[in-house]
Amino acid sequence: MKLTIEHKFSLTVYLWGVITGIISGVAAAKIQYGWLIGLALYLLVDKFVLAVIKELPPEVPNEGAVRKKAFWGWVLFWLYFTMFSYSLMISFTPQCYSNQSLLYKMVASGNATVTCNLTPVG
User: Fold this and answer.
1) Got the DSSP string for 74-103?
2) How far apart are CA 116 and CA 108, in angstroms?
3) 45-53 vs 5-30: helix crossing angle, rounded to 10
4) What pLDDT score was predicted for residue 40?
5) What is the average pLDDT score of the chain?
6) Which helix (H) or strand (E) holds 117?
7) pLDDT at residue 60 is higher than 60
8) Domain limits of the chain?
9) How far apart are CA 98 and CA 55, in angstroms?
10) CA distance 109 to 96
11) Are 21 and 80 in contact (CB under 8 A)?
């Protein structure tokens, strides 16, 4: 299957979002403002895209327009993988604030594989 240049462009932007998201999540688990590292790596998206695909789609007229065209695709993948890798790094455990919550009922019935710390409120 041959990919068009537009698809290569999109997949490359998404890949850069995944890479920077994982870097952000791991860094945020180690230092307070670690997520800013991945955010700063967005500035290199044009270099990464051009290094991988070597040419630009017709709707991206020049190298300067790569960041603008890639922003939303990159930011959604970056945000998702930042939160995902951060949650894995800190060994996140959900908190159940009520024994009437759906999560608590799922855990108590054995339908969920996570543990739930019951924290009474009030």
Assistant:
1) HHHHHHHHHHHHHHHHTT---EES-TTSHH
2) 9
3) 140
4) 93
5) 89
6) strand 117-118
7) yes
8) 5-90, 92-122
9) 55
10) 14
11) yes
CA 27, distance to chain mean position in Å, is: 13
Beta-carbon count within 10 A of 116 CB: 19
Residue 39: count of CB within 10 angstroms of its CB: 14
pTM of the entire predicted model: 0.81
Is residue 24 within 8 Å of residue 38, measured between CB atoms? Answer: yes
Task: Give the DSSP H or E segment for 107.
Answer: helix 102-109
Q: What tokens were used for 121?
A: 């409120």
Structure tokens at 45: 């998206």
Encode pLDDT of 86-113 as tens digits: 999 998 888 888 888 888 888 888 888 8
Q: Which of 74, 77, 81 is nearest to 43 (CA)?
A: 74
SS3 45: helix
How many Å from the N-terminal Cα to the C-terminal Cα in the chain? 59
Report which residue type is found at 66: V
